[in-house]
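Q: I'm building a small set of examples for a reading group on sequence design. Run inverse folding on the following structure and report the sequence directly after it, with nothing in between.
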């Protein structure tokens, strides 16, 4: 397995978290790279659910994939991004297809297991097939894999360019807008953020994950 170079790792995390600065120096070494060495946020306020980074503040949201959108939906989103986002804000979007589909399959299967009988039998076979499809193509003539579509949206302010209150207002506005077009939204905590890194394939080979990161959109 190839190992990503240090510049590639820094670039990957800078694009994901919107912060180009490295963590504070002085973290004791333990003979192997630690995840904490690459996380740019320094603290998290559980009251406001805002991340405090080296030279910025930020929040992250996971949103449900937008399906069935029409031209009017696109106009609403475009208008919001052009008018409601402060000039000091930086918006980044991560969209990828995760092979970790176990929880999604479980939500389908568990009620049918509880029902028993033929429903349980169908759920057993279907769960086995879908789980197999996460890593093996379900079609013989090409790649056809089972994936969980994930979309993570983050907004950050450079320190001194915007206040925590303004950032919270932006987050609430984005949440209200997405909910108005029937898109579910959940806020990220540090635990969610670390789980996301793991889901993206953090195993010392960050280069293969770089294509998952959508471009940052500075304003």
């Amino acid at each position: 397995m190839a190992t990503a170079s240090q510049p590639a790792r820094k670039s990957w995390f800078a694009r994901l978290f919107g912060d180009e600065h490295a963590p504070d120096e002085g973290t004791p070494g333990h003979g192997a790279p630690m995840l904490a060495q690459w996380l740019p946020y320094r603290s998290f306020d559980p009251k406001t659910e805002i991340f405090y980074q080296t030279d910025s503040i930020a929040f992250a949201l996971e949103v449900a994939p937008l399906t069935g959108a029409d031209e009017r939906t696109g106009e609403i989103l475009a208008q919001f991004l052009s008018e409601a986002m402060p000039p000091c804000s930086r918006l980044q979007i991560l969209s990828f297809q995760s092979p970790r589909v176990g929880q999604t399959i479980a939500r389908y299967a568990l009620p049918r297991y509880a029902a028993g009988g033929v429903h349980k039998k169908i759920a057993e076979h279907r769960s086995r097939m879908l789980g197999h499809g996460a890593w093996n193509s379900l079609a013989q003539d090409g790649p056809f894999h089972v994936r969980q579509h994930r979309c993570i949206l983050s907004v950050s302010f450079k320190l001194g360019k915007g206040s925590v209150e303004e950032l919270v207002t932006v987050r609430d506005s984005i949440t209200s807008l997405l909910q108005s077009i029937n898109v579910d939204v959940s806020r990220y905590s540090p635990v969610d953020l670390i789980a996301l890194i793991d889901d993206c394939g953090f195993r010392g080979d960050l280069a293969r994950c770089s294509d998952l990161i959508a471009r940052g959109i500075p304003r």
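The first helix runs from residue 6 to 17.
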